[in-house]
Design a protein that fits this description.
The complex is a heterodimer.
Chain A lengths: L6 H25 L2 H10 L4 H14 L2 H6 L1 H29 L12 H4 L9 H27 L14 H28 L6 H11 L2 H22 L7 H13 L10 H8 L6 H5 L12 H9 L5 H5 L6 H5 L6 H12 L20 E4 L8 H13 L4 E3 L10 H5 L3 H17 L4 E4 L2 H9 L6 E4 H10 L11 E5 L12 H10 L1 E2 L23 H16 L5 E4 L2 H8 L5 E4 H22 L1
Parallel strand pairs in A: 1-2, 1-3, 3-4, 5-6, 5-7, 7-8
Helix pairs in contact in A: 1-10, 1-12, 3-11, 5-7, 7-8, 8-9, 8-10, 11-12, 14-17, 18-26, 22-23, 23-26
Chain B lengths: L21 H9 L11 H5 L10 H10 L5 H5 L7 H5 L6 H18 L1
The chains are: A mainly alpha, B mainly alpha.
Chain lengths: 600, 113
């Protein structure tokens, strides 16, 4: 058996890491809800595991999402992650071939070059030497890029990078040193015994000529082992915890386990999967208006430390721009809501004053939503459109709205929200309608996610498009230049991007913008935030409007009454909801039809 | 004296012996936009809950300003946080956070007792 005292730090670090990981994962597993545990046991031995393994390879090793974002950043991550794993695999194979035994000590492949100099016993030894040197070179380039990124992050597409904690720094400096030390140690030993491949062998020759490698190699091997030990000990308390945890998270996610309203085991897995890469910082719209310590990465950091930081939880538009770019796919909004739930006082039976009046029967229910009552043009247009299409509809909240519950949900008052959901649901179902149409994306999102309705729920942009396709209404194109603002809740929240665009391209000239669809801005009026002052909100709104005006549109179109009301404060541009544009288009078509009749 | 059927309203002066401004002090510290309220009543005019109950944000805010006690907790739980009031407030008062803060200060005091 190969042994030297310098393997002790490595072994200590590795066993410490394994012990901490087992302890933490066991703790989080126990914290999983019953339903989640059941799902885990149900799916772990099924085809889903193959899908999970594929995703783990693509995301945890290749880092596909980071490649899409920035090539150099992707290369840096992939070379270190995939390179390191391949180095471990190749090293293990090499060791097993050499000792011709199946089992070896965990440190054997790591320090193989120190123990084994006579390599003629290993089959295809030259090939292995080449592969190991090649992988080491790839990793060294990755580490070089990482060091370079520390000073010039712009090259990697990052304007701002994360402010790190001390454990993060310890782990980072040790990972920077591990591979250069390995390179030096292997080169020195190669120089001593005149072995090694194209990298370590050549460097070894050079070092042997200029340095006393006989004396230097042993301390460098010690240094290498100590650095590995430091990295392993710092890992569970640093951002590098994401390396093992992301693998577990991808598995759990593939089994359909997600954070749902309560901060439990799966949330722990999620917050510990955050690599603090800082990609979410640049996209946050709050950067410009206030001190920047509430961005997704810092919020998750404080959650991981089990802090109940009220400002970090409540100071967020919940626009989802950070979620959209997160390479790990952490659902930050859902986690923020669970954190809010811990901080607010919930009340279950708050809305007993809502009595159940009788509901009329109809085919379609139109539910305007609270915000639509602030923009009456939207609801009146919608009613006209439904009349024009001869739809038998019921305007459910004609005389003032009962809230859908989503704003309460966003505030973390889950019980109160669900009591409203129950009351509204009962009313909706009483009407016997088959379709529920709403003008408000906020309502639409909760209808889809929490109401669990047996009938279909549609946003009015979807329903209008259906009416157009069924030829119940005809539109005429006004050739006006229009830009379309994607509301957060409708776009990133529900994935509705194409329907509003199709309608607008039938009624006017739709101009595409740079930041649209899933990269669209938040208007600033979001009900997600509880901390921004009115001035700060209007600063966000003005910035967004300024970008729209660069396309010099005649109309800024949106599909959300809240966005419309927010933009309308700065009245230079004409801001219209899709329903209003469609109504104008229908009326214009009617006028032309009449003219044609008169001429005939 | 002859009763003509007209009465003067009761004296509306604030009786400082009976007021306690603890909620106001808390709000002033944790949501300073509360001080901006001019009591115009726009919030109440648009209130979703106000449609169904006598929930009245303007009255609530005025009473807090004056330091009168009333059963705040039952009042504010009627709020659905729908956000119409914050959209229409001409002074930029962060009404939704004020509701959360009132709830918080009342619950905290209850726990201390």
């Amino acid at each position: 058996m190969n042994f030297d005292p310098f393997v002790i730090p490595f072994l200590t670090g590795l066993s410490f890491l394994c012990a901490v990981l087992i302890f933490k994962y066991a703790k989080w597993f126990i914290k999983l809800s019953r339903e989640h545990k059941f799902k885990l046991l149900k799916w772990i031995f099924s085809h889903k595991i193959i899908l999970a393994l594929k995703e783990i390879f693509l995301e945890s090793l290749l880092h596909r999402k980071i490649f899409r974002r920035n090539f150099v950043l992707g290369y840096m991550h992939a070379s270190i992650a995939l390179g390191w794993l391949l180095l471990i695999i190749a090293g293990n194979l090499e060791t097993k071939l050499h000792s011709s035994k199946f089992f070896n000590m965990p440190y054997d492949p790591v320090f193989l070059k120190f123990f084994v100099h006579e390599r003629s016993g290993i089959p295809i030894a030259a090939f292995y030497t080449f592969v190991m040197d090649f992988l080491l070179l790839i990793i060294l380039i990755g580490i070089g890029l990482a060091v370079f990124k520390r000073f010039r992050s712009m090259l990697f597409g990052l304007k701002r990078t994360t402010r790190l904690k001390s454990f993060d720094k310890i782990a980072r400096y040790s990972i920077w040193l591990i591979f250069p030390l390995r390179f030096l140690a292997e080169s020195f030993t190669s120089g001593q015994y005149n072995t090694g491949g194209f990298l370590t062998g050549t460097a070894g020759h050079f070092f042997a000529a200029v340095l006393p490698v006989d004396y230097l190699s042993y301390p460098v091997w010690w240094g290498y082992s100590i650095m590995l030990c430091m990295f392993f000990i710092a890992l569970p308390f640093s951002r590098y915890m994401h390396i093992p945890t992301e693998v577990a998270l991808i598995m759990l996610r593939n089994f359909g386990i997600k954070t749902n309203k309560i901060y439990d085991g799966i949330t722990e897995f999620e917050v510990n999967s955050c690599p603090r890469c800082g990609i979410c910082i640049d996209v946050c719209q709050l950067n410009e208006v206030q001190a920047s310590d509430i961005q997704a990465v810092y919020f998750i950091q404080s959650s991981r430390e089990n802090k109940k930081d009220e400002r970090k939880a409540f100071n967020c538009l919940l626009c989802g721009r950070c979620e959209n770019v997160c390479p790990v796919g952490i659902e930050v909004n859902a986690i923020r809501i669970t954190k809010r739930k811990q901080l607010v006082f919930d009340n279950k039976n708050a809305f007993n004053f809502l009595t159940n009046g009788s509901t009329e029967k109809a085919d379609v229910i139109y539910y305007a939503g609270c915000m639509t009552h602030l923009t009456p043009a939207v609801k009146s247009s919608m009613c006209r459109i439904l009349d024009e299409a001869n739809v038998n509809y019921l305007f459910l909240d004609k005389d003032g709205s009962v809230c859908c519950g989503r704003p309460l949900l966003m505030a973390g008052k889950i019980e109160a929200a669900l009591s409203l959901v129950e009351k509204n649901k009962k009313k909706i179902l009483e009407s016997g309608a088959k379709t529920l149409v709403t003008s408000c994306p906020i309502c639409y999102k909760i209808f889809r996610e929490e109401y669990k309705l047996p009938i279909e729920a549609l946003h009015h942009s979807q329903y209008i498009l259906r009416l157009v396709r069924e030829k119940k209404i005809t539109l005429s194109n006004s050739q006006q230049c229009v830009v379309y603002h994607d509301p957060c809740e409708l776009g990133r929240g529900c994935g509705i991007y194409d329907e509003p665009r199709e309608i607008l391209s039938r009624t006017s000239q739709l101009v595409p913008m740079k930041n649209e669809k899933n990269n669209s801005w938040c208007c600033g009026g979001s009900l997600g935030d509880f901390k921004l002052s009115a001035e700060q909100k209007s600063e966000i709104t003005r910035d967004v409007l300024m970008e729209f005006m660069a396309y010099s549109p005649e109309i800024i179109a949106t599909a959300c009454p809240l966005c419309k009301k927010t933009f309308a404060k700065y009245g230079n541009a004409k801001i219209q909801d899709i329903a209003e544009i469609v109504l104008a288009s229908i009326l214009k078509e009617k006028v032309t039809e009449k003219k044609v009749e008169v001429l005939q | 004296m002859k009763d003509f059927g007209y009465t003067i309203n009761k004296d509306r002066q604030i009786n400082f012996d009976r007021t306690d401004k603890w909620i106001y002090e808390y709000l002033k510290k944790h949501e300073p936009s509360f001080k901006l309220c001019i009591g115009c009543g726009t919030c109440t005019a648009t209130c979703s809950s106000g449609n169904f109950t006598d929930f009245n944000l303007r009255r609530l805010f005025t009473l807090i300003h004056r330091g009168y006690k009333l059963d705040m907790k039952d009042e504010i739980t009627k709020c659905m946080l729908c956000g119409k009031c914050i959209m229409v407030c001409p002074r930029g008062v962060n009404t939704r956070n004020i509701i959360l803060k009132i709830n918080e200060v009342i619950e905290n005091r209850k726990r201390k007792k």
